[in-house]
Structure formats: C-alpha cells, structure tokens
C-alpha cells in the first residue's frame, strides 16, 4: 500500500517522536505491559480477541514494544515499515480486528506512557505521540480494509467467522492430530495459498472468554475441505497445559462445529519461482510445509525439492508416511528426516537420514545455495536455521519463515 493516503505529520511532531526512541527502547516493554493491564481492566471484552497466554508469557508486550519502537524510528518514512504493518495486518484480518478498536488501543497506550514515564512524559511528548499513533493506526486500518475487501470478494470468501464442522479427526503421532473441516452452510470453499493459516475461535465451557488461535493449513488447497494439524501442548511443573490444543484433542470430535475465519497470512509458497525449493521444519512446524509439498506435487512436479524435517523421534513425527511416500514416488523430491533422540524402533526402521540437529555443513552437503528456503519450527530451531543461511550468504529475498506465535527476532 502506498503511504500517500496517510495524514502528514508536522516537523515538530516528527522530531519529538523520534527523540523518544531511546526512551522507548529502555522502557518499551514496561510501557506495553502496563498498557495491556490498563486496557483489559477497562475493556475486559477485548480478552476475547487477544491471546492471554502470550500476555502472561510476555511475548505480546515484547512484540508490541518492538512494533512501536520501529514505528517511532521510521515515523518520517512509514514506507520502510509497511512490510511489517502488512504482516501484522494479515493476523488482524484473520482475527477480525475492526477500526473502532484502534482508538481504544491508542488511548491506553498514551495512558501507559504517562504512567511509566511520569513527569518525563510532557504534554508535548504525549501530543506528538497521539498524532503519530493516529497516522500509524490509519495505516493499519487502510491495509486491513483492503484485505477485508479482497477476502469478501473471493469466490466463497467470507468476513468474520463461519461455522465449520469437523468431518474427520485423525491421530498423526503421539502429540499431533489432524482435523478435517467443512463449512456447515455447504457453500463454496475458497482456495488458499500453501503456507497460510486459519484462525479458529474456541469457545470452551470453562473459559469466560473466547480463545483465538492460528493453525496452518496442512494439506494442498482444492480438496473440498480444510485440514489443520494440531500439536497437544503438554503442561510442565511450572506452566499449565495449552488451553486450545488440549481442548481440540480431548473434546472436539467428528460432528462438532468450530467458528473459523478465512485463510490468511503472508508466508506462502511462490509457485512462480523455478529455483530449487528447500523446506525445513522442526516439530509441528511441518504443517505449512506439508501444504507446500502437496501443492508442489499437484502444480510443479518438475521443480527440484528438498524437504528436511527435524523431530525428537519417530513417535512425535506426524505425517511421516505422506512425507516418505512423496520422496519415494517423485524423483525430483528428496526428503530427509533428522531425529535428535531416535527410539529403538526408529533405529530398526532407519528412515532418518541424520541423527542430531540440522547444521550448516550438512545443509551445504545436500542442498544448493541458490534455492528458495522456507522454514518453520520452535524459535531456537528457527534461529539456528536462519543463522546457518545467513552464514552461507543466502540472499534475504530467498529466506522465508513463519513464527507460530508473535513475531520474534531471529537476529537476537
Ligand atoms: P496456550 O494456552 O496458548 O499455551 C501455550 C504454551 O504456553 C503452553 O506450552 C503452556 O504450557 C505455556 N504457558 C501457559 N501459561 C504460561 C505462562 N504464564 N508463562 C509461560 N508459558 C505459559 N500450532 C499447531 O499445533 N499447528 C499448527 O499448524 C500451527 N500453526 C500456527 C500458525 C501460526 C501463524 C501461528 C501464529 C501459530 C500456529 N500454531 C500452530 C500455534 C497455535 O496457534 C497455538 O499457539 C498452540 O496450539 C498453543 O495454543 P494453546 O491454547 O494450546 O496453548
């Protein structure tokens, strides 16, 4: 989107906002933590929209602090942050964020800045931030309005939530189960780009608020259903088990109905590219990769593909046979399984190509450098892959990745 249509800020406002960047960097997370506390106190209904576990973990305040910090830094050249705005806007569209919610966020952000900075937050600073927030909010609202329109205009597309029935539930491994979904209204099911996700609204009997969660579509589009594959997040001594994943595994069965928003996301396979394709997944991060792999089989079977999947061992490796079969049936598709702690059964079956972890030397020995790389998995895994690709001087435009949570920073 062009930034031409956004309101212009005066020089003084820009200078004041830019001057607060160091303060934000120092207090950014404290401000956003306070912001969420104050906003939820005044507007508890917004707990239906925000992921409250991410709040507790501190991930959401960190992500918001980073976004605010970036916006302040580039307030005189918003085009520099439009890619980040668009990325977040995809998530907002899938969560049905509406323009009326932006002034609420703005109000509590300013109150939190005042609350944390005290007298240091002068009227000039607050006024400048109010204006700057207005411009940033307008950028989100415009980008999201286009996305809502595109979604509504697509054949079979819808805005808001549409009821889907679970038509099949399939256990894929000890921890991952797939849910096959069909619209209750039996209307047209729009396609999606391989790598995109759905947002589901879980309405759980013991929870006061709805819980929204994203799940990548794990099959190729065009099959008459949507499939998501969900890992059951176990609890630890310290933390409770994952709410929605356990609810889905334990209580959602064939015939049950879940509200779902239309497919979204900017992490998807570029099917126009002819470069070799390298898909690298860790754990449940294989879901978007399976969608990409199945799409390649349908649409680009001549393309050179290397699919590397890392898991603890075979017992938690979902869709193992689909992956193996693709490698056996199609000469251009090479699959590599990496287990860090293979079981005795894995050692007998010996379908894994490597024991341990994916590292640069091994990657260099099996895939061409001039490839399109796509990866997804736990944050530590993603940092390792990203670090390896950077060390190998793979150009940034050939590196694509998805976080299964708020956007983190792979450079840190
Ligand atoms: P939550 O209740 O949200 O808890 C998450 C984790 O936090 C748990 O391990 C829990 O023990 C821990 N926790 C709880 N409280 C605290 C606390 N106070 N402090 C620290 N930790 C705490 N998941 C899939 O399984 N498959 C997919 O295909 C998939 N695709 C995704 C695609 C995208 C774009 C995104 C953003 C996410 C995707 N996810 C996917 C992740 C999914 O959205 C959920 O985050 C995941 O299922 C966990 O949700 P939950 O409600 O079960 O767990």
Structural summary, described in words:
It is a single chain. The chain is an alpha/beta fold. Helices cover 42% and strands 17% of the residues. The strands form 3 sheets. It has a 6-stranded parallel beta sheet with strand order 10-9-8-7-11-12, sandwiched between helices.
Provide a concise account of the structure shown.
The chain is an alpha/beta fold and 412 residues long. Helix content is 42%, strand content 17%.
Order of strands across the main sheet? 10-9-8-7-11-12
Q: How widely separated are the two ends?
A: 29 Å
Q: What small ligands are held by the chains?
A: flavin-adenine dinucleotide
Q: Could you tell me the strand content as a percent range?
A: 15-25%
Identify the notable features of this structure and list them briefly.
412 residues; alpha/beta; 4-stranded antiparallel beta sheet; 13 helices; 17% strand; globular; binds flavin-adenine dinucleotide
Topology:
Layout: H1 11-19, H2 21-42, H3 52-57, H4 59-73, H5 82-94, H6 101-117, H7 123-153, E1 162-171, E2 176-183, E3 197-202, E4 211-216, E5 226-231, H8 243-251, E6 257-260, E7 277-282, H9 286-299, E8 305-311, H10 320-329, E9 333-339, H11 344-349, E10 354-355, H12 360-366, E11 372-376, H13 379-391, E12 399-402
Parallel strand pairs: 7-8, 7-11, 8-9, 9-10, 11-12
Antiparallel strand pairs: 1-2, 1-6, 2-5, 3-4
